[in-house]
Amino acid sequence: MTGTSVSAFDRSELRMNPLFDTHAHLNSKDFDENVAEVVERARQAGVVGIGVIGIDLATSRRAVELAAEFPDMIHAVVGIQPNSVAESSEGDFAEIEKLASAPGVRGIGETGLDCYWDDTPIEQQQAAFDQHIELACQTNLPMVIHMRESGELIAEQLARQSQLPAAVMHSFTGDWELAERCLEMGLMISFAGMVTFKKSDDLREVAKRVPEDQLLIETDSPYLSPEPLRGKRPNEPARVEHILRCLADVRNVPTSRLAEATTANARRFFQLP
């Protein structure tokens, strides 16, 4: 069988077991001119759902607009990302609270902590994270957590809560000890393009051990293009199949099985039929 034949077979197999990109930023300026084309390419690649994630009030509003425009494909998540907290205006979070009840909204976020950038003081980030946790609990919506170089602080803050919503650690980059803490709290773990990078052996070892029913996949478009497309921006949801193939390989399971499992997990997470 030729390489082309193998690729065609695998693509057909994935279409029989559709894919779900749980985290993309189709509300970013990278997609202002061609979002319909990007969504169509995702369909052609077997993607049946895309979580479009807000990072501030404007992108959260845009996520809601896209969910209305593509109701069978796009599911909005609204919130203020930790790096956007300092520049948000007074009253922005009250508007996020209103957006949470809009049609097509399926989650709160992205929220969390970021210790890589210093755009927002950590105390301010933590206060905003608490607000999002409370909103997710009040609305019974799942929460999307941003965790750049802050996994331990996030786990500690979550452990202090009297109540936790369903949540996912998006674009997970931590070690197994952190993953285990998150899994014990009932969190989902989602892997993006970094798990495919050649030097990400340790991350692939973590991905191998995450229980199948707590595993999600994402592109984090337009960022983190996976191998073999690393560095080619913008990334887009059609490329989520590369993350799926990588995880299926390291877990030694058929791509069809993992596609079915991660898509079912995404539907359950976002409370979709």
What is the CATH homologous superfamily assignment? Answer: Metal-dependent hydrolases
Task: List the domain count as a whole number.
Answer: 1
How many helices in DSSP terms? 10
What is the CA-atom radius of gyration, in angstroms? Answer: 17 Å
Report the structural category: alpha/beta
SSE succession: HEHEHEHEHEHEHEHEHH
Spans of 5+ residues with little confidence (pLDDT < 50)?
1-9
Number of strands: 8
Strand content: 5-15%
CATH topology: TIM Barrel
End-to-end gap? 38 Å
CATH top level class name: Alpha Beta
Largest sheet: 8 strands, parallel
What does it look like?
It contains 10 helices and 8 strands. By secondary structure, it is an alpha/beta fold. Helix 3 (57-69) runs parallel beside helix 4. It starts with a helix and ends with a helix. Residues 1-9 have low confidence and may be disordered.
List keywords for this structure.
alpha/beta; globular; 273 residues; TIM Barrel; 15% strand; single chain; disordered N terminus
Summarize this structure briefly.
The protein is α/β, with parallel strands linked by helices and 273 residues long. Helices cover 43% and strands 15% of the residues.
